[in-house]
Amino acid sequence: MKVKVLSRSAEEATRERSNDIHKIQRNLDPTLHPFEKAREYQRALNATKVERMFAKPFIGALSGHVDGVYCMAKHPKKLDWLVSGGGDGDLRMWSLSEQKSIWSTVGHKAMITGVSSFLNGTRFLSCSNDRTVKIWDPEENGTGSTTPVAVYTGKNAFSGISHHRSDNIFATSGSAIDIWDHDRAEPVQTLNWGVDTINTVKFNQTEKNIIASTGSDRTIILYDLRTSQPVTKLVLAMRTNAIAWNPMEAFNFVAANEDHNVYAFDMRKMDKAQNILKDHVSAVMSVDYSPTGEEIVTGGYDRTVRLFNARQGHSRDIYHTNRMQRVFSVLYTMDNKYVLSGSDDGNVRLWKARASEKMGVKDYRERAHLEYAEKLKEKFSSVPEIRRINHHRNVPKAIKSATKKKAIMIQSRKVKEENVRKHTKAENLKERIPERKKPVVGVKK
Amino acid sequence: MVEKKKEKKDPVLAIVPKYARGNAHEALDGVNKLENKKLKGTIKRREKQFKEAAYKAASSELLLTEEGGYLEPEGIEKTYQLTQSALKKEVDISTAHKMFTLDLKFGPYSIDYTRNGRHLLIGGRKGHVAAFDWQAGKLACELQLRETVRDVKWLHNETLFAVAQKKYVYIYDKTGTEIHCLRNHIEVNKLDFLPYHFLLASVGNAGYLKYQDTSTGKLVAEHRTKLGKCDVMTQNPANAIMHLGHGNGTVTLWSPNMTTPLVKMQCHRGPVTAMAIDHAGKYMATAGLDGQLKLWDLRSYKPMQEYFTPTPASSLSISQRGLLAVGFGPHVSVWKNPFTTKQTSPYMSHLQPGSPVHDVEFVPFEDVLGFGHRSGISSIVVPGAGEANFDALEANPFQTKKQRQEMEVHALLDKIQPEMITLDVEHVGKMDKAPIQVINKEKKEAWAAANPEQATELKFKARGKNSSSRRHLRKKAKNVIDQKKVDLLERIENDKKERAKRRAGNPDEPATALDRFSGKKRKL
């Protein structure tokens, strides 16, 4: 008779010396791991609760401005660098790691409407309602000089500024779009389509010669510098306040609109929005992409900052504080970890981009655990219990009531539309307009 | 073509189905017809990931070092003729140490092993309880309780155990100190512990099945079986459903969430004496006083095989690799593969002379069968019983103290709520495919249950039925009948008929435009 009996020796299964790590033998046979799904669900639930418990996104307020902060600029290559412009002409440069102002000057006689950084060096531009554009270099000779390196004077007030990615040219908006060379006192080019005021102008940072601008006549106009010609003119139902180009997909941009929504467009197909980001309950004043192009941060007139997944329709988080007023400028930092907001109350606020993320170095096991938890949350995200916890946010009463009211209004509009359709003869019935085409009034090429 | 040939040669592919979760073909059915490209891509990508995961898990079988035990007869040898003394000569010394008998005077003994198979708990009917690391021979504690002990059970690890005593259930720690007395559990015959839910289940003379949460101390559920005294209980390790065997031959399946049994099975023509369920939760073995040993398929609740036991079996146990141990009289016989094919002879058998067997149990991750009998406990070697490769993160026979503590914390964090015990373990996170009306109705009922005062206010009030004659009738004394009342009732009844007639109209009459105001819908 052949006999084999299980006989394990403790030496083989345990460690030899106390410095060794313990031997962990695995057997992935599913029958040895009962209740797999129920345990995973429990872990997902715990992870969701823990995430909400640790959601403390506010890091600090950078105070210094006396008037509101209406524009900010980040540096494409430096993390610890921020410039902000105030309503009283005050310009400030900040060290984000120390959370304090390292340089400031009253640079303009009127409200600063735009600041912009260059790729090279530490210089930056500012434009203002006092009809000047100035180039500043705080680190020139290490002195913290408060005299501008160059001053350019225009005919009208400027409303926005954007610097070219690599060349020494920049664009300003005002009554028209002016293209300036660093070495010329007059604009080298003036672009215009229609007569209305231009609110903002933004250079595409990848496809370097494309400029997007928004006008107060509800238009978004794209120009190509190579031909000095406008490319497309898009008219929306309401005014667009800000634009941000997708840093990874050069042809995509988002437009922060007065009608509480943010519209994502593909510049090749402007007849409909690629995505509509809803949730703000007042005009969206500012928008910025994360450097990965996957996330979007918006600041609204409703005194909140919202974070969106760029491919989803509703915000994944909302940031607000008691003292934060209307948010006029937001930025996503270049390390994809922080969000900055500049508001009417004169503070620049620093937030975490993911509210519950632990900052600092994580060791391998911790990272593995967090990734596992993330996957589990995704797996069970549609289970009602988990979804409820995950979606719950305490928001200010004003936002909550406005959200409710808005939902009722939208619903009643829908009902009315349906009723009209119901009582219209079949031959008079117009085709339904897709939701993403509704905001587009017209496109001209 | 070349790739296909390669795939066929891959030996891992044969074992992939064991590790696959769900049916990939079913999940991908109709995906190509989806209009939503994003969704289509997501589903396909996910299925690909699942497939890859199953393949990787299957290929990790290569790393399993241990091979399961076996007995291979040569020539005319029969495995059931092999006695323990003959086997002892064939095996190594550490295995030989696992064959032992303890002569104890306080029997019959119930026994229980921890989930890693390392620790043994014995309880003699006359009040003797002992807990020890049976492989190392280290005694943890020994108690003389001086009252009847009906059952003993380890809780989640070897630090705590429960004992069903004469009246109450007590919980002791490993030093033998009494920690709790569970006064809700009265005259308990059988205990069981659900390790992933931290639930201690008990059933006794009164026929009440009680679930106590050992992590929070709350009594989770208390079910009246209405079938009298019960002393046969076992858990389905795959879905945590408790199976109770009753005096009338039925086996009932319970979860803490339903006050009535989930399933009732008529298994025997006499009382059920023993029951066991295999680790995958597919098969159940039951034995009755009618001399039958029946094997059931728990997916269809149908009998698969029926065996005859000369003496009614007193205890059953199924090992991790599917061996069935039957204790009857002073015998223990072990059957190999008894579920799918009808066996004619046992795999092994053992006689404990002069001492009826009370409780048999296979040791997890060992080729050992332990049993308690009238005059003590015994341990015999059954090659091929235990799973050869343990998973150290699930149950580790060589666990250190630190690992045990860590595992306890993790087990508590991952504790499954009792509400999640269902027949279908894959239930959570599944799509509810019921029609929308059913789902809405359920939602409504749940809401009504949660908000009883608002729900009652929503009563439909019928208007226009409150005529003066009815009010008059209402005000009158109910039990007095006078002529006026009779007249009134008659009039109301006549009016009603008249109204109905008027509403119905004359069926022969052609429909007019005014019919729309008559109240009754008529086809125009």
UniProtKB/TrEMBL annotation, chain A:
Residue spans of the WD repeats: 62-104, 105-137, 277-318, 320-361
Keywords, alphabetical: Nucleus, Repeat, Ribonucleoprotein, WD repeat
Residue ranges constituting the Sof1-like protein domain according to the UniProt record: 353-440
Basic and acidic residues composition bias: residue spans: 9-21, 414-438
A GO BP annotation: maturation of SSU-rRNA from tricistronic rRNA transcript (SSU-rRNA, 5.8S rRNA, LSU-rRNA)
UniProt-listed InterPro entries: Sof1, WD40/YVTN_repeat-like_dom_sf, WD40_PAC1, WD40_repeat_dom_sf, WD40_rpt, WD_repeat_DCAF13/WDSOF1
SMART domains named among the record's database cross-references: WD40
The keyword Ribonucleoprotein is annotated on this UniProt entry: yes
Region (Disordered): 1-21, 414-445
Pfam family name, one: Sof1
Location(s), subcellular: Nucleus, Nucleolus
Entry GO CC: small-subunit processome
Keyword Iron: no
Similarity comment: Belongs to the WD repeat DCAF13/WDSOF1 family.
Protein name in UniProt: DDB1- and CUL4-associated factor 13
Automatic annotation (TrEMBL), chain B:
Biased composition, class Basic residues, residue ranges: 461-478
Protein role: Involved in nucleolar processing of pre-18S ribosomal RNA.
Locations listed in the record: Nucleus, Nucleolus
GO cellular component, one term: 90S preribosome
Protein name: U three protein 7
SUPFAM superfamilies noted in UniProt: WD40 repeat-like (SSF50978)
Skewed-composition ranges (Basic and acidic residues): 479-498
